């Protein structure tokens, strides 16, 4: 059996064996724990000179981590990855900034990381690279002579060609992506955007089986929606229900209904619009005053990127304004908590709430939406209000799907969710649990890796056949 090498920008903190708030880390660690293997990437430390990876083993996972210099961090991570790629891939060109120096740093760090990983590789390893920080990583490995199968999964949306083309080196990036053997996207729409870029720009062709021929390479391009382990989450949510924090939330609600949201503090998550739609509910339906509260947990991320500082200020302002407008001595409409909570506790909090309010402006998948549903008590489940622009909307047919730019529609959906009869809530919950079980996190991983093995074997057969044909022709 070949060894699995997972590569991502950031490796989850080893001591905790538990990732920070962030969907990629949660998905990758859970997926890797089952199969075992190596997880290679940035340790989160800033260092003065690139050095050899630090190797630590915990259970069946070997963590191989490297530091980044301050310049690497500024140009590759804070710069091109999070000031150019992240906003543009989330359709926020207005927030995107491009700097040639940052892009050069992005290329340089990809090349350095590839060199560092190469030293650890064995010929039979299978390499799975994750996310937008590492679009050119396979090309860097190929330039070093690495022949192993290399797959790539993009956790965030892939924009339509018109939007992608606003990034000056767009073609260089897509060309580099074609060095992978398999590219996976969260949704069919993202996959189609990539294929459209290739075909409309006349860079290559695609066939019905998902194979793309571009820049002299054959690769598979598919949609592999990331899953969760719904039954494990349901169990954790139930077990943690008696925790002190959960009890005090329940007691503090004094029979009020609870709308619950959890997101990294990020402008793509639609937090401002969400607060404003809740405000609209309170305006349109005064009967809910004193009878419903919104709890928003939003641990800060990328706090040194300017756009994240701005969204934080705006949100604090909005929460204060709305609370000032509607609060009563014994009722605070919005509880806005800028901190991280233990994962299982979050699931138990979801279980206490009548509405899961998940309304990103764009999101690759959105695991919180799935976790909310999985955490519910099947006998008395809450209702999910979900943005149509989350990849999860394709997969959760029982949600009330809303356009997060339409505040009135969101307010109506909240009201409907808060008043929904039990039988309808149960039916909607059941409609979502079954597909989540069938497409859990192991299925996501195994489908992707099976395709990667298959494509890599097929291309090595093709390469050998081509070589043989060359030899025969010249003899
Ligand atoms: C990216 C893509 C895609 C949140 N707060 C806390 C906490 N969380 C956990 C949630 C969830 C994860 O973080 C967030 O995942 P999401 O999927 O919602 O969003 P991103 O972080 O933006 O993830 C996304 C994902 O990758 C996977 O492919 O779905 O579209 O953007 O699991 O529960 N966890 C803890 N404390 C918190 O306060 N422990």
From TrEMBL:
- Kindly state which reaction or reactions the protein catalyses: D-glucose 6-phosphate + UDP-alpha-D-glucose = alpha,alpha-trehalose 6-phosphate + UDP + H(+)
What enzyme category does the UniProt record give? transferase
Question: Would you kindly state one Gene Ontology biological process term found in this protein's UniProt entry?
Answer: trehalose biosynthetic process
Q: Which GO terms describe its molecular function?
A: alpha,alpha-trehalose-phosphate synthase (UDP-forming) activity
Tell me the pathway: Glycan biosynthesis; trehalose biosynthesis
Q: What is its EC number?
A: 2.4.1.15
What keyword terms does UniProt attach to this protein? Glycosyltransferase, Transferase
Q: Which family does it belong to?
A: Belongs to the glycosyltransferase 20 family.
Its quaternary organisation is:
Homotetramer.
Task: Please describe what this protein does.
Answer: Probably involved in the osmoprotection via the biosynthesis of trehalose. Catalyzes the transfer of glucose from UDP-alpha-D-glucose (UDP-Glc) to D-glucose 6-phosphate (Glc-6-P) to form trehalose-6-phosphate. Acts with retention of the anomeric configuration of the UDP-sugar donor.
What protein is this chain from? Trehalose-6-phosphate synthase
Q: Which organism is it from?
A: Paraburkholderia sprentiae WSM5005
């Amino acid at each position: 059996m070949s060894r699995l090498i997972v590569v991502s920008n950031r490796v989850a903190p080893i001591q905790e064996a538990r990732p920070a708030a962030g969907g990629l880390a949660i998905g990758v660690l859970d997926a890797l724990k089952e199969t075992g293997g190596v997880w290679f990437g940035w340790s989160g430390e800033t260092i003065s000179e690139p050095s050899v990876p630090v190797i630590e083993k915990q259970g069946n996972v070997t963590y191989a981590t490297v530091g980044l210099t301050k310049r690497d961090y500024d140009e590759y991570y804070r710069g091109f990855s999070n000031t150019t790629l992240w906003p543009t891939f989330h359709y926020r060109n207005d927030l995107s900034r491009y700097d040639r120096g940052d892009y050069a740093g992005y290329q340089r760090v990809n090349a350095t990381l590839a060199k560092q990983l190469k030293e650890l590789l064995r010929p039979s390893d299978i390499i799975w690279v994750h996310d937008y920080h590492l679009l050119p990583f396979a090309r860097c490995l190929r330039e070093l002579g690495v022949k192993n199968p290399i797959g790539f999964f993009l956790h965030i949306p892939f924009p339509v060609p018109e939007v992608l083309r606003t990034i000056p080196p767009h073609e260089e990036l897509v060309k580099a992506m074609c060095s992978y053997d398999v590219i996976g996207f969260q949704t069919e729409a993202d996959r189609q955007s990539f294929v459209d870029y290739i075909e409309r720009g006349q860079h290559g062709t695609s066939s019905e089986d998902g194979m793309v021929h571009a820049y002299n390479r054959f690769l598979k391009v598919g949609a592999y929606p990331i899953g969760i382990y719904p039954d494990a989450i349901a169990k954790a949510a139930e077990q943690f229900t008696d925790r002190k924090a959960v009890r005090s939330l329940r007691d503090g609600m004094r029979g009020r209904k609870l709308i619950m949201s959890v997101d990294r503090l990020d402008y793509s998550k639609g937090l401002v619009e969400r607060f404003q739609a809740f405000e609209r509910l309170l305006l349109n339906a005064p009967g809910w005053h004193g009878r419903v509260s919104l709890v928003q947990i939003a641990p800060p991320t990328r706090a040194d990127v300017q756009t994240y500082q701005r969204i934080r200020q705006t949100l604090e302002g909005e929460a204060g304004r709305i609370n000032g407008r509607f609060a009563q001595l014994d009722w605070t409409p919005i509880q806005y908590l800028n901190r991280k909570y233990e994962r299982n506790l979050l699931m138990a909090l979801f279980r206490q709430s009548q509405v899961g309010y998940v309304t990103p402006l764009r999101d690759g998948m959105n695991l919180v939406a799935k976790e909310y549903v999985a955490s519910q008590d099947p006998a008395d489940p809450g209702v999910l209000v979900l943005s149509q622009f989350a990849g999860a909307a394709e997969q959760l047919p029982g949600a009330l799907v809303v356009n997060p730019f339409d505040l009135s529609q969101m307010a109506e959906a909240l009201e409907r969710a808060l008043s929904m009869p039990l039988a309808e809530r149960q039916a909607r919950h059941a409609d979502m649990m079954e597909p989540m079980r069938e497409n859990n996190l192991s299925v996501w991983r195994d489908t992707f890796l099976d395709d990667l093995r298959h494509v890599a074997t097929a291309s090595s057969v093709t390469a050998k056949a081509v070589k043989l044909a060359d030899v025969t022709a010249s003899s």
